[in-house]
Amino acid sequence: MPEHSMARTWTAAGACMAVIAAGFYLSITNGMFDMSIGEVAKTLLGMGSSREHELVVFTFRLPRIVLAILVGAALGMAGSVIQGVTRNGLADPGILGINAGAGLTVVLYMFLFQGTVELTGWAAVMAMPMFGIAGGLLATSLIYLFAREQGRLDPQRLILVGIAIASGFGALTMYVSLKMNPNDFEMAAVWLAGSIYSANWKFVAAMVPWLVVIPPLLWWRARTLDVLQLGEPTATGLGAAVEREKNMLLFGSIGLVSASVAVSGSIGFVGLIAPHIARRLVGLRHRSSLPVSGLIGAAMVVLGDFIGKTIFAPAELAVGIVISIIGVPYFVYLLIRSKS
Predict the structure, then answer these.
(1) DSSP letter string over 223-265?
(2) Bigger pLDDT: 154 vs 170
């Protein structure tokens, strides 16, 4: 990679980490119980802090911030891969129905075990990503079935099919959730809005394996994503096993999305916006844009969660709603730009 490209990548990554650090500071010091940075530091280091400070930092705020970073990073990287595989800048896990498919199967899990499910229990936390993957694979299979033309994915049909699948799965999810008992319905409704307010260390533990295993594999195949941008015939001519590579990359992105949906609900537009910003900052090479997309996604969710929990305090606005308020105008802008 050229030296100037590396410099751009490190500069962009440093800027993103500075934004994440700022979001971390704001989120951990502000809330119903304000704390100074000195009190936070003493609590984190175990230097004679009070029981109240330990409860606020280690039980309520820190796992929520860490989970926001993990979920945002997963969605940002998944969006970058999906846009690279489909060669469509408007592709996004939410728009393509992958979020909705994962959400449907997780709600079905809640429905099948209604009255006995606690989202904070180890069994539920570890099982839900697997249900989410099943739903994500179902959504992807339907996309492949209906959006392919003469054996290839058509970018225009891809968006239309994805929107239709997301709408259909969303309707089914709402139908299933209305059949739940009141307690489970309330839990599902909050979760579907895209919220991490009930985050705990079990949720973090459920996300970590997916982020340890999948992103390095995706980064390892980043050059294949670059080759795919040349078109399938050219990629095949260069010796790439196109279908196998696309399936592997999509499966990895589905794993990241499904794990995220399982612990935070459906947070849309992160996978759409983060890759666009990353490409503007560091260029088209996925070795650079993939990790930067993850950092931008993490920054978006951390700041979105802080805005959601403070703007209407003491009431909270789900982070998924906050990001959607930003994401919808941006999506319209991208549509207009793509037409022009």
Answers:
(1) HHHHHHTT-HHHHHHTT--HHHHHHHHHHHHHHHHHHHHHHH-
(2) 170
If we measure between CA atoms, which residue out of 26, 54, 30 comes closest to residue 42?
54
Please, which residues have CB within 8 angstroms of residue 283's CB and are 6 or more apart in sequence? 5, 8, 289
Q: Give whole-number Cα distances, 330 to 167, 274, 337, in Å.
A: 20, 11, 10
pTM of the model: 0.88
Residue 153: DSSP 8-state: E
Instruction: State how far the Cα of 186 lies from the Cα of 198, in Å rounded to an integer.
Output: 13
pLDDT band at 294 (very low <50, low <70, confident <90, very high): very high
Assess contact for 308 and 318: CB atoms under 8 A. yes
Residue 120 has pLDDT above 60, yes or no: no
Contact call for residues 258 and 132 (beta carbons, < 8 A)? yes
Percent of the chain exceeding pLDDT 90 equals 24
The set of residues, in sequence order, having a beta carbon less than 8 Å from that of 123 and lying 6+ positions away, is none
Amino acid in position 204: V
Q: How far apart are alpha carbons 35 and 275 in whole angstroms?
A: 35
Q: Which residues of 81-106 are buried (b: 16+ CB within 10 A; e: fewer)?
A: bbbbbbbbbbbbbbbbbbbbbbbbbb
Q: Tokens 């079905």: give the residue.
A: 108
Strands annotated E in 18-162: 148-149, 152-153
pLDDT digits (tens, 9 = 90+) for 124-149: 666 777 787 888 888 888 888 887 77
d(CA 155, CA 147): 8
Is the pLDDT at 274 greater than 90? The verdict is yes
pLDDT of residue 163: 86
Cα(76)–Cα(268) distance, integer angstroms: 11
Q: Give strand pairing partners of 153.
A: 148
Phi, psi of 240 (to 5 degrees): -80, 135
The token pair at 188 is: 């599902």
